[in-house]
Amino acid sequence: MDLGVKDFVITSDGDKYPNLHAINKAKKQLVKADRALARKAKGSHGRIKAKIKRAKVYEHLQNQRKAYIHQVSKDIVTKYDSIGIEDLNIKGMMSNHKLAKAVSDVSPYEFTRQLEYKADWYGKKGY
């Protein structure tokens, strides 16, 4: 399997799982929440409420990513008997400021971790 930024995963059969682009879809909400927080006075109850709203937006974004990763990893594990993933230098990709946001949006480490444990769970060869 090939992990990427444009397409989330491409299998050896040519099946493509598109990238969710969750951060781009939630960008408007994130900016709005950040601005609302910035306008509030420090120590006020309004600031506490704005922090909670901002945290909920980030939590929703995180839940979307997790659900998609679970969906794709289960689909791959149930479809294939043997799974091989390319070895990526994730740390190096994160140090590149042009790639960092896109790579973190895909979360390749979490995907490979879930694939590994699900392959063990279903008794598949792996990795």
Describe this structure in words.
The chain is mainly alpha-helical and 127 residues long. It has one domain (2-126). Helices cover 63% and strands 10% of the residues. The protein is built from six helices and five strands; from the N terminus they run βββαααβαααβ. It has helices at 22-25, 27-39, 45-79, 90-95, 100-106, 108-122; strands spanning 2-3, 7-10, 16-18, 82-83, 125-126. It has a three-stranded antiparallel β-sheet, with no helix packed on it. A two-stranded parallel sheet has the order 4-5. Helix 2 packs antiparallel against helix 3. The radius of gyration is 18 Å and the shape is elongated.
User: Largest beta sheet: what is the strand line-up?
Assistant: 1-2-3
Q: State the total count of DSSP E strands.
A: 5
Q: What number is the mean pLDDT? A: 89
As a whole number of angstroms, the C-alpha radius of gyration is 18 Å
Q: Which regions contain 5 or more consecutive residues with pLDDT less than 50?
A: none
Quick recap of the structure?
The protein contains six helices and five strands; from the N terminus they run βββαααβαααβ.
Q: Topology, please?
A:
Blueprint: E1 2-3, E2 7-10, E3 16-18, H1 22-25, H2 27-39, H3 45-79, E4 82-83, H4 90-95, H5 100-106, H6 108-122, E5 125-126
Parallel strand pairs: 4-5
Antiparallel strand pairs: 1-2, 2-3
Helix pairs in contact: 2-3, 3-6
Which keywords apply here?
63% helix, 6 helices, mainly alpha, three-stranded antiparallel beta sheet, two-stranded parallel ribbon, 127 residues
